[in-house]
Design goal:
Length: 519
Amino acid sequence: MAGGTPITEWTSGDRLVGDDARALLREQIEEHSAGLHAALAKFDPQSAFSSLFETIRAIEEFINLPCFGLNEPWLWEALLDLPLDVTRAPRRFRVVHHHIVYQFGAAFAQRFTTLMAQTMAIGVSFTMLRIETTRGAFGTVNSAIDYFQSRRRHLVSLLYTLPDAAKGREPVPVIDTLNQFLPLVELNGATLTGLYQKAMLAEVFPDFALHVMGDGFYGSHDYAVLDGLHLEPERTTIVDMQALDPEILEGAGLKPVSPSRLFSVAELRNDIRLMEAAYAEFDLAGSDFRFAAAFVRHIADLAEDDYWVRLSRRKFDRVADALRLPQALRQALVHRPGTYTENTNSYAPLIELDGQLAGSVALLSRFLYNWRNVCLYKIRRYQIRSGFIFEQAVSAELEEQGFTLTGIKRINHKEFDVVTTRGGIIFNVQCKNNLVDITKIEANVRLFARYNRARSASYERALRKEEKREDLLRTKLGLDRVEHLVVSRFPVASENPRIIPYSRIGDVRRIASAITKSH
């Protein structure tokens, strides 16, 4: 950990537990939060906000370019392998740059090259500062994409924080944006997230300890929150629904989008069509989602450069009144001032600065996907159905890792989720889709920890219950050994290796092998 107050009361090699560990975590949370807000205070709010917003656009384009913008495999590979120091591969950079200009235009290419220059410079700075969390992050475009994916939530949180925290006159030129803000994200923002997670783990595990190393420390336990693409868990994703029904895309009635745009109003409208089609069996379009969709469709007409959305607060109120938006939705659409920590859990697509609201196509899409979950999670049928969809997703992942699906769902009126075999062993997998709101960690660490303990205890009981009926599986499959696992869609902190968060679904084969060898 870096960026906080030096840990002067402790020396390298010390091990902190109990109240000492919790006290140190509280102190560091306060110091990092105060330090971040103090650092933002010197900036001119308009300049800082504008430059950061523009840079976030460039980062979103940078992340999505290889996945959605390039159709030629050779060009895709050339881009990912491209060194950020273009002097090491000038010819390759010229080829890639030529194709980007040809397909996306000069303005897009300028944002791309400006971001590459900024990223290379900040990479050199982080190396000189020996910031371990960024080691290897700035060698190639591919490694930088992965880094920015892991930090974009923090960059957006910083954007939310600026209008209220920035009170000075220091301007921020676009070319200097990462140099000014990325150290705050890395040393304070991302660290705050880690500190809150450690504070929660300190409440969950009686033997939790902090091990001091130099001027930092690390925890004895981890909490796997995000998946491999640094995305937060949700009960069912669009990908899950498309796997369930490959014809969803055809039924959605998607309209053509310009190949010269990675983000556009047309794509935003298609996002709405796709969500409504994918969740039609739960009547998403008839829920409160319809109000959000109507609002986004309306203000999309105001977009500038097919991306930016700007309107006055008065204009927003008129549109909201005309569309009869529910009060909860009105409040969710416009960001309310808060601390950086509070802002990490905001999805508001519009940010107010000096009476004007600013947003983007990307923020509107992000909001819609979250509001879709807000609406769906209230529908009882969806809660039940999503459990079966999750079982199918787990089955597909296990089959990919070499587990043989047996198709068993019921024996003697006893129900099972996913029963597999591998290496002559039965692996009986329970799929738990219980909602765990990870945003509550920062809001109330102790309450979240209490809920986590309850959920973990519930899964432990479920494992013991399965042990009592494993003879049913032995008899049915003619195999002697049965191992039981729980895969939880939402992360649960547990020391039991048999309780596996879905974010680690790719490790099930390794985990199963370790369990097999230890028993």
